[in-house]
Amino acid sequence: MAKYDIPVSQINIAGHTKAIRTGKAIEDRLQEAEYYGRCYHAKDELLVDSSLNKSHFSNTFIHEVMEAVNVEYCASKIKHREITCLSNGLHQALKSLGIQFIPRGGKRASSK
Ligand SMILES: [Zn+2]
Q1: pLDDT tens for residues 48-106?
Q2: How many A from CA of 2 to the centre of ligand 1?
Q3: 90: helix, coil or strand?
Q4: Ligand 1: distance of its center to the CA of 50 in Å?
Q5: Structural domain count of the chain
Q6: How far does the centroid of ligand 1 lie from the alpha carbon of residue 97, in Å?
Q7: Is 0.85 topped by the overall pTM?
Q8: Structural domain includes residue 80
């Protein structure tokens, strides 16, 4: 179990407040398309499947944040494969410090 479970419901990236959307309807929508998460820049929304276990939720959240950072700070020049490598590495490093992100309100994200 992580030392610091940080509940997330929104995050500010480059002055844009992005809502973190979780819950059953979002899970259904993501699973239908076989995604763990999505980042919608125009709507300032990050969707994350809260049925994932805690570690996977946290990894996916970090990935979607990196997607938003890529758009806002890197003119979308970072390739998706590189975003995945960087977000996986950042997730591992944060996890080693006992830090992981969970859905606000403890909505799912099982304790596995
Ligand atoms: Zn992605």
Answers
A1: 999 999 999 999 999 999 999 999 999 999 999 999 999 999 999 999 999 999 998 75
A2: 24
A3: helix
A4: 16
A5: 1
A6: 24
A7: yes
A8: yes
